[in-house]
C-alpha cells in the first residue's frame, strides 16, 4: 500500500467542509461509492462489536419524505447519496456470541481459543445497564461517521454530517424500529454546488497549541 503524503492528507482535510448546497445533477461514480461503503464496513468499534447498520436511502420519494423531518435541509434530497447511521438496539451477550462465531470463521480458529475474549465482551454487555450500553454503542456509530467523512475527503467527495433531524420520524419512515435499529446521525455525500457560499470560507479552528497538549 502506498500511503498518502502528509501534505496530501492535510490538504484533503482542509478541502473538506460541511456542504450546505449540493449539485443534484452530479452523482458519485459506482466504484467511488463502493469504496465509501467499504469505509463503513471497515470502521473500528469497541471490541469489534460493530453495533450498527448503515441505511443508504436511494429512493427519491423516501428522501422527500425525510425532508420535513430534517429541518428542511435540502442536502437530504439534493446530495448524490444519503446514509443514515443507526445503532443496534438491545445489545446482549448474544452479540458477543455472534462476533466470536464470525471471528472463528474468518480467522480459521477454534471458538474455544477465543473464550477469554468472549467472556470479556459478554461480561461488559451484561454487567452494564441497558441505557448505558445504548450510549456506549451510539458512540461507536460516530466513529464510523468520522471514518466515512475522512475517506470521502481523500476521495474528493463532498459530505455533510447532520444531527439536525428528528430520529424518531426517520425511524418511522424507514421502519428501523421493526428491524431493531435506531437512527443516530445522518451523512449526505455528493459534490458541492458551484454557488455554495460556504465553499470558499476559511476554516475556523483554534491554534494547534490550544487544542493539542503534549504530556
Give a brief rundown of this model.
This protein has 215 residues and is of the alpha+beta class.
Describe this structure in words.
- The chain has about 220 residues and is of the alpha+beta class.
- The chain has one domain: NADH Oxidase (3-Layer(aba) Sandwich), CATH 3.40.109.
- The chain is about 45% helix and about 15% strand.
- The chain has a four-stranded antiparallel sheet, with helices on both faces.
- Helix 2 packs antiparallel against helix 7 and helix 5 runs antiparallel to helix 6.
- It is globular.
- It starts with 5 loop residues before the first helix and ends with a helix.
- The mean pLDDT is about 100.
Quantity of strands, as a count: 4
Q: Give the overall average pLDDT.
A: 98
Structural class of the helix and strand makeup? Answer: alpha+beta
CATH architecture: 3-Layer(aba) Sandwich
* Spans where pLDDT lies below 50 across 5 or more residues: none
Distance between the termini: 32 Å
Number of folding domains? 1
Q: What is the CA-atom radius of gyration, in angstroms?
A: 19 Å
The CATH superfamily name is: NADH Oxidase
CATH class: Alpha Beta
